[in-house]
Every structure is written in C-alpha cells, then in structure tokens.
Amino acid sequence: MLVVGGGGREHALALGLVASPSVGEVHLAPGNAGTASIATNHDVSDSDVEALVELAQSLDCDLVVVGPEGPLVNGLADSCRAAGIPCFGPHSEGAELEGSKLYAKQVMNNLNIPTAAFHLIDSASQIDAALDDFAPPWVVKRDVLVGGKGVVVTSEREEASSALHEGVSLDGVVLLEEFLSGEEASMLVMLDESGWVALPASQDHKRVGEDDTGPNTGGMGAYAPAPVVTEELRQKVFERIVDPMHEWLTAQDTPYRGCLYVGLMIDDVNDPYVVEYNVRFGDPETQVTVPLIESDLYELLYAVATGNVAYSNPRFSTAHAMTVVLASEGYPGPPRKGLPITIEHAMIAQEEGGAFVHHAGTASADNGQLVSSGGRVLACTGIGATLGEARELAYSLMDGISLEGSHYRSDIGYRAL
Ligand code: AMP
Ligand code: GLY
User: How far is the CA of 274 from the centre of ligand 1 (A)?
Assistant: First the structure.
C-alpha cells in the first residue's frame, strides 16, 4: 500500500491498514515521525504527481490511498489508473468539487441539492449590491484551494467588503454566500459507480478558540458518532444530497472512486444543507472515524478503488471516539516549527478502545529528537464506550505532552456532552 500525505489523517489511515491481515507492507509519501514507527516513509512530496506514480510502480503497490486534495486536483488518481494501479481518490475532474467552490455550487444547483444561496462576483463594482442582497453575517469564499482557510464569516460590512475586493483582485472571482445557521457535521461517504456507504457521522471544530471563537483552521478536534446526525437526518442526507450526487457522478465518463466528504449545516427544523464538498477524508474527522470501522479497512478502500463498494459489507463499532489537536504557536497563521516535543505516553491500552497519539506535523531531528514541523502537530485520540470516556482518555494523553507555545481546545465535544 502507498498512503499519500503526511498528516494525522494519513497516520490514522496507515494504522488501519497496518492492522489489516490482508496487508503486507505500508508505505507513505512523505509521512511523518508517527508513521515512520509503523510503516516506511519515503521522501517524496505529496504534490509531485509524477514521482508518486514512479514510487508506487517501483514498490509494486496494489493500492494507492490519497489523503490530501492537492494531488487529486492535480491528477494523481488519473495517472495511477493510467499506470494500472488501483487508486482510492477521484480523478481530477471529480476533484473539482473541492478544487472549485463555484463548480460545486453549480453542480448542487443543477441537482437541486440544498445549499446556501450565493452571488458570483467578478468585478469590484458588483460588491455593494451583493452585500445589500444578503443580511449579515456575510460569508466570503475564495474559489481556490487554501487549506480550509479561504472563508471569512463576518458581520462587519467593511471586513466582508475588503475580503470580496481581495478575492476579486487575487483570483478574478469570489463567492458571497448566504449565512446558514445551525450545527455542523461531517459525513464521509465511500463512493464509486457501484454504490456508496456512509461512515459514522462526525463533528469537527473549525475555529481556533474555545466556544468556537477566533479564525477558522483546518480543524482543532472532532468526535464520532455525532448525535446531531439522527437516523431521521441521515435518511434526509441520503435522499436529498448523497443519492442525487451519486447518480450524477456515475453518469460522468470516468467514475468517481473515493471519499465524498459532505460538510453539513443542520438547521433548527432538522433539515440538512451542504456547506462544502471535499473529495477526500477529513482531517481530523478520519482520526475518529477509521477507528470505528470494525471490518478490514483495506478491503473497504480496495473495493472503492476498484468500483465494488456495493459488494463490500463494512461493519462499524458501537464505540465513541474523540480527537484533540495540538497546534503550534501562531497557527492558523504561520506556525513556529522545529521545537522539541515530549510525549509522556504514546498510548493508553485498554481492552475496548484506549487512546493513542496521531502524529501530524512532526519530524525527527538529526539527533533523533522529535520536533514540530507544521501547524497542526499531533492529535490525541481516545476510544471509549461513551463519549465522556473517549474524552477523558484523549485529554489524559494530552496532559503528558509538552511543546513550547502550543495550544489546544479544552472543549472538544461540548455540543454532544
Ligand atoms: P468551507 O471551507 O466552505 O467548509 O467553510 C469553512 C467554514 O466556514 C465552515 O465549516 C463553516 O463553519 C463556515 N461556513 C462556510 N459557509 C458557510 C455558510 N454559508 N453559512 C455559515 N457558515 C459557513
Ligand atoms: N476537517 C475539515 C476538513 O478536513 O476539511
């Protein structure tokens, strides 16, 4: 197996694959210090599509699992399939659902999938009229990949206006969206032309600060299953959002084979709206979702990569999972890197569940010292019979970690608890 990427998501995927009796070797490109201890890392950037395909060929891989969106948008899945290597992750055209928010909006509108109304703005002269059309708060979205940080939500007209001006001048176009209020949840759907399977729903915490304050991040913590996604709501999501999308994707020339991440807003009358689609597993949602897959992870991913998900029969655990992200000083702005990390306990073993540290932005210095190398450094993940138990396990691992200047949220899971 080759897992592409080097975050906490990829550490979680690698752990799941290593545990599969069907898997021989697991390789990562580039991986991190955590994956180095369970698999083989290769010093190949996750943005170098050509080198990644060469690596998969030289390792004689049976499956390439792509973590981040960048290489998918840049055609990694197209190249793997052209080389005859099954790939978990959609081709570049399918990846445009995440690569371009405008394209995703147009697809949703054509399919009548519930989502926020929007204005496409391609000239500064349209900005005032567009702002007048929606009540505050305003939601401004750039139409380019910016690691989950290209969205401004604000009730200050000046701030919304300047974000719109900046979008027009940087990218030529920018979106202004109607604000959706409610509770967010993430549904990861394993999807190919044969059908689809939804994994247990999770809830991320996008804001950097306690009580959902401060700027948006890639995600500061998550838990699963998310009780806001009731069985009734799941059925609405399937009927209104997943089925029409599956039907449309299946009618395209090249089948979509991978994870369709449905970012949901659930309003006060329990109706779901799509905030965004991603074309990959979520990070940190994967850290709490993969451990709840009781059946063989490899079999599920391989089934999707070969267009057979309808014939796979994944089983899910009834446990609860929570993950808490430790971020570097400065994150989500430019992070301080290269500082030593000490981890008192890498895991807590328990018969049912336990806890472990998922590495993300970590590396080994020349002297072997574990050091920080990114914004989100690691995530402490607990698995328990209840969400409260999962929380206790995750935070007790976090208590034993030190990294100068780092920060984490102490309120992950507050909505459910
Ligand atoms: P996105 O990158 O589209 O997921 O947006 C990042 C975050 O901004 C989301 O997780 C929401 O918290 C928030 N957001 C995005 N679009 C909207 C919207 N239309 N209404 C309310 N909040 C939104
Ligand atoms: N946690 C949000 C994302 O993966 O996009």
Answer: 9
- Rounded distance from Cα 275 to ligand 1 centre (Å): 6
Ligand 2 near 287 CB (within 6 A)? no
Which two three-digit tokens encode residue 282? Answer: 């979520």
Peptide bond into 340 cis (omega under 30): no
> pLDDT of 213-269, one tens digit each?
998 899 999 999 999 999 999 999 999 999 999 999 999 989 999 999 999 999 999
- With a Cβ cut-off of 6 Å, ligand 1 is lined by 116, 139, 141, 148, 151, 153, 177, 179-180, 184, 206, 216, 263, 275-276
- Residue 218 C-alpha to ligand 2 middle, in angstroms? 6
Closest residue by Cα to atom 3, ligand 2, is: 282
374 lines ligand 2 (CB under 6 A): no
What pLDDT sits at residue 407? 98
> Cα 403 vs. chain centroid, distance in angstroms?
24
Q: What is the pLDDT of residue 266?
A: 98
CATH code of the domain made up of 2-90: 3.40.50.20
| CB of residue 177 inside a 6 A radius of ligand 2 | no
Residue in 375, 253, 306 with CA at minimum distance from that of residue 65: 306
**Paired tokens of 347:** 């895991």
The predicted model scores a pTM of 0.96
Query: What pLDDT score does 149 carry?
Result: 61
Fold adopted by 320-402: Glycinamide Ribonucleotide Synthetase; Chain A, domain 4 (3.90.600)
For residue 223, the SS3 value is strand
pLDDT score of 96:
95
Residue 373 Cα to ligand 2 midpoint, Å, equals 19
Sequence letter at residue 154: T
State residue 21's pLDDT score: 94
From the alpha carbon of 284, which atom of ligand 2 is closest?
A: 1
93 lines ligand 2 (CB under 6 A): no
Q: Which residues of 176-203 are buried (b: 16+ CB within 10 A; e: fewer)?
A: bbbebebebbbbbbbbbbbbbbbbbbbb
Question: Per CATH, the architecture of 181-311 is what?
Answer: 2-Layer Sandwich (3.30)
Residue in 73, 101, 145, 204 to alter for ligand 2 test, most ligand atoms within 8 A of Cβ: 204
Segments of the chain scoring below 50 in pLDDT:
none
Nearest to 249 by CA among 234, 260, 262, 261: 260
- pLDDT score recorded for residue 147: 60
Q: What pLDDT is stored for residue 351 in this prediction? A: 76
